[in-house]
Design goal:
- It is built from eleven helices and eight strands.
- 44% of the residues are buried.
- The chain has helices spanning 6-11, 25-34, 45-48, 60-71, 91-103, 118-126, 142-145, 155-171, 183-192, 213-216, 234-261; strands spanning 17-21, 38-41, 78-82, 108-110, 131-136, 175-179, 197-200, 208-211.
- An eight-stranded parallel barrel has the order 1-2-3-4-5-6-7-8, surrounded by six helices.
- It has 263 residues and is α/β, with parallel strands linked by helices.
- It is elongated, with a radius of gyration of 21 Å.
Length: 263
């Protein structure tokens, strides 16, 4: 098995780490066989799979359910799972719930927050569970912040992000996601820490990039984030296939009824 390990990801800084979300077995298998480096069972499932308005209503049981399915399709990629909102309020709670994710098939876990989550990151790492950080725009705080906003627009905010990144690294994270961070700041962070940065909507200068699978393939044409350029139009293809099937069934039924009425 040629699975990417956290150590390899740590050393892959500058080599281009490709990461995508996955929430079910067939998607995970297809992406794994395509050669993806990292798969994330993210709480973004709230919007793209469960029909929720954001990630704040996603429960740990939701993550665990989808994680088990995804793990059955993974042979080589590094499988990371999100700790959902309010599951890592204390170091002890963080470790207990991280262990649940590992038992369900994850190779590593991810949590949101920088300096405010240092003790949780330290505790998880000390329990020999690989942990990925996540700074910048924090989806689990979207309601508090009033939407999805670019971070690092001011010198003060930029400095706080740099401090967050260094703190996450020092606490023992093997990589850190930078979400909606101003590209110039993301570049500075990437050059200032040893662990890889994995960007989403943070410019091209991060060590890797992650996207929500549904956004990448145009699965949900009613919403495409500004930072995404879909590589396919799966949603349109599904709609056309369904329409063709409906027309075929209704047309066949109409023809059969007409023949039945003919003497």
């Amino acid at each position: 098995m040629n699975r990417v390990t956290p150590d390899i990801v740590r050393k892959a800084k500058g080599q281009g780490i490709a990461a995508l979300t996955a929430y079910d077995y067939p998607t995970a298998r297809l992406l794994d066989e395509a050669g993806i480096d990292v798969l994330l069972v993210g709480d973004s499932m709230g919007m793209v799979v469960l029909g929720l308005p954001d990630t704040t209503e996603v429960q740990l049981d939701d993550i665990l359910h989808h994680l088990r399915a995804v793990s059955r399709g993974v042979q080589r990629a590094l499988l990371v799972a999100d700790l959902s909102i309010d599951t890592y309020r204390t170091p002890e709670e963080a470790v207990a719930n991280a262990k649940k994710l590992i038992s369900a098939g994850a190779h590593a876990v991810k949590l949101e927050g920088g300096t405010s989550r240092i003790e949780q990151i330290k505790a998880i790492a000390s329990a020999n569970i690989p942990v990925m950080g996540h700074i910048g725009m924090l989806p689990q705080r979207v309601r508090e912040e009033g939407g999805y906003k670019i971070k690092g627009k001011t010198p003060a905010e930029s400095q706080l992000l740099i401090e967050d990144a260094k703190a996450v690294e020092d606490a023992g994270a093997f990589a850190v996601v930078l979400e909606l961070v101003a590209p110039k700041v993301a570049d500075e962070i990437t050059r200032s820490i040893r662990i890889p940065t994995i960007g989403i909507g943070s410019g091209k200068d991060c060590d890797g990039q992650i996207l929500v699978f549904h956004d990448l393939v145009g699965y949900s044409p009613w919403f495409i984030p500004k930072h995404v350029r879909p590589e396919a139009t799966v949603g349109d293809a599904i709609s056309k296939a369904a329409a063709a099937f409906i027309a075929k069934v209704k047309g066949t039924s109409a023809n059969e009824r007409e023949r039945a009425r003919t003497p």
